[in-house]
Design goal:
mainly beta
């Protein structure tokens, strides 16, 4: 059984904006149930998915279930996607095309988030991504593919998952990547970066191996083509990031 509270009645139909506004379209979702398939296209300026209006502070989009499939496109500038999800065996196909967009998701803060699959494409400048996966409770097996074309984008990604593979393909200048992986038996980051003045911070801590696993492995593979890049890697057998 799926339950929805929708801020607009035009879900699954593209939204069009003809002026550079900051509060054009809004979708609010409160959903409980399994096997949800959600398609959303938002086209224009200042579109938002969340659980609050544009005048107040950010708030989560509570979605709970398993075997969820998301396909979300936000096309335009200054779009916002906020959410808190509790979801096992779920896949997320996300696309942003435009500048100054914000993606802030928390997956598994209040419930299990096993078997997550992300396919994310970002094209534009000055975009912000803040993703927390498995931040408090059980999380196993994450497959994350991120492709970025643009400049001055900022990515802050915290992954607390038993088995995680994150593939990044970044093209553009002055991009800032800050990521942490911890408490996993198999952790892998593959980064291909082309562009000047990159700032990359990678923390990878195996911490305590899951029950029944004697060896925890961390792998980082970098392919960097950048002038004036700054890269810091902290890789160790511990749970803290100091």
């Amino acid at each position: 059984m799926n339950k929805f509270i929708l801020g607009l009645s035009l879900i699954m139909i593209p939204f069009f904006s003809y002026a550079n506004a900051t509060d054009d379209n809004e979708i609010n979702i409160d959903q409980v149930g399994d096997t949800l398939v959600l398609y959303i296209d938002q086209i224009g300026y200042g579109n938002k998915m969340g659980l609050n209006n544009f005048a107040s502070g950010s708030s989560a989009m509570p979605i709970t279930g398993s075997s969820l499939t998301f396909n979300i496109d936000q096309i335009g500038n200054e779009n916002l996607l906020y959410g808190e999800l509790t979801a096992d065996s779920s896949s997320y196909t996300l696309q942003w095309t435009g500048d100054s967009n914000v993606w802030d998701w928390m997956i598994g803060d209040s419930g299990s988030s096993d078997n997550s699959n992300y396919l994310v494409d970002i094209t534009g400048d000055s975009n912000t991504m803040d993703l927390d996966q498995g931040s408090n409770l059980s999380a196993e097996r994450l497959d994350f593919d991120l492709t970025v074309i643009g400049d001055s984008n900022v990515f802050d990604v915290d992954i607390d998952v038993d088995d995680a593979v994150w593939n990044m393909d970044i093209t553009g200048g002055s991009n800032n990547i800050n990521t942490m992986q911890k408490d996993g038996a198999e952790q892998e980051i593959n980064l291909t970066l082309v562009g000047s003045s990159a700032d990359v911070d990678i923390n990878q801590m195996s911490g305590t191996c899951p029950q029944g696993v004697s060896t925890c492995n961390g792998i980082i593979t970098l392919d960097i083509d950048s002038e004036n890049a700054t890269i810091q890697i902290n890789q160790k057998d511990a749970t803290n990031d100091s």
